[in-house]
Amino acid sequence: MTVNRGTDFLFFDSVEAFFEETRENRIQHLIEELTEENRDSSAAEINSWKNSLPDLAKLLCCPEAYLEETKKECAHYILALDYFKTLIAAGHFAELANFMEDEDIRKNVNKIFDKKTMNALKKMIEEPNTFNDEQIEMSCCDAMEAEVRKLNSRKDMTGRITLNQGTHEAGQGLPRNLKVLLECKLENNHRIDVLLSDPGQNKHVIIELKQWTEENIELCADEAGREGRAVRIKEYNETQMHPALKVREDYREHLKADVGENAEIMCLVYLHNQFYEGSTLFSAPREVLYDTEKFNGQNIIMYSRMRCEQFRERICSFFQPE
C-alpha cells in the first residue's frame, strides 16, 4: 500500500505513488480510504473522487499520454461539431432532436458547448422556423472549434516542461520529493481536494477539482450582493463560493496556519471535464478569476482541460528551485 494516513488527510510520498494508487485496479481501495477519512462524504463527492483523482494523477505523472488522450477527445468533438453543423445547415432538426436524446451524447455536448449555444440548439429543435442563416452559423461553436483545432495541432509537450527536460521518467518536471495530500482538513474544518507540497522549499499548490456540468450551475451573487462571486448548484439548490475565490480566500488563508505565513502558496482550479472556456464558471468577473498574487508573472487560477498543458506547466515552474 502506497497511501499514507496523516492526522487529517491522506498523503503520498511522490506523484508516482499517487498515480499507482489511482489506477483502475487500485482506485476503489483509495475511495474506501478517503471515505474512512471523510465520513460525511456524499455520493456526489465519491463520484468526483473516482473521476477527477485518476485524471489529475495521470496528468501529473504521465503528461505525454494525457495530452495524447485529450487530443483524441478533441478530434472526436470536432467530428461531433461538424455533424451538428451539417444537420443544422440542412434543416434536419428532427434528426438533431433524436441525436440529442442519447444521454451519453448530451453529456459530451455539455462539455464542449456553452450554455448560450445549448439553449440555441434546444430552440432550433423546438422552433426551427424562428432561426435565420446568421443564427444558424453558430459563432460560439465556430470560436470553440478553432480552440479545439489549435490544441490538436500542438506538438508533444515533452520539450515544453521546465525541469528534467528531455527525460521520459514518470512525474517529469516535478520534484522527486513532492508530497501529494488528499482531502487535507483545515482549521475551519474545510478540506482541500489536493495539496501538492514541497516541504524543503516550503512551497505548496492548492488544487480544487470540479466536474460540474453546465446545465446544473449558474453564477449568482454572494451574501454581500456581489454578482458572479458565488455559484448555485441547481440539483441541490445549494449556493457555494466560486471555486476560484474559495481556493484563495478560504483555503490559502487557513492553510497558512499550518505551513506558516512565509510559505509560498499557489491556488489553482482544474475542470477536467470542461473543454470550453466560455462556460459559466469562466463568466465570473476578472477579480474572481485572477489571483491577487503572481507566481512567475502569472495569476490565472482556473483551467479547463483544453489548457491542461499550461496548467501542468504552471505547477512545474512554481516548484522549480530559484
Short description:
With 322 residues, this protein is α+β, with helices and mostly antiparallel strands.
The fraction of residues in strands falls at 15-25%
Radius of gyration: 21 Å
DSSP helical segment count:
12
Low-confidence stretches: 154-168
In round numbers, the mean pLDDT is: 81
Order of helices and strands: EEHHHHHHHHHEEEEEEHEHEEEH
Tally of distinct domains: 2
List how many beta strands DSSP finds. Answer: 12
**Which percent range fits the helix content?**
40-55%
The side-by-side strand order for the widest beta sheet comes to: 1-2-3-4-5-9-12
Termini, distance in Å?
Answer: 34 Å
What coarse outline follows from CA principal-axis ratios?
Answer: globular
Query: Structural class, from secondary structure content?
Result: alpha+beta
Largest sheet: 7 strands, mixed
Describe it.
This protein has 322 residues and is an alpha+beta fold. The chain has two domains: 4-63 and 169-214 and 241-319, no CATH class; 65-152, no CATH class. It is 45% helix and 18% strand. It is built from twelve helices and twelve strands. It has helices at 15-21, 27-37, 43-61, 63-89, 93-100, 103-112, 115-126, 133-136, 139-152, 243-259, 286-289, 308-319; strands at 4-5, 10-12, 179-185, 191-198, 203-209, 217-220, 230-233, 238-241, 264-271, 290-295, 298-300, 302-304. Strands 1-2-3-4-5-9-12 form a seven-stranded mixed β-sheet, sandwiched between helices. A three-stranded antiparallel β-sheet has the order 6-7-8. The two termini are 34 Å apart. 35% of the residues are buried. The model is unreliable at 154-168 (pLDDT under 50).
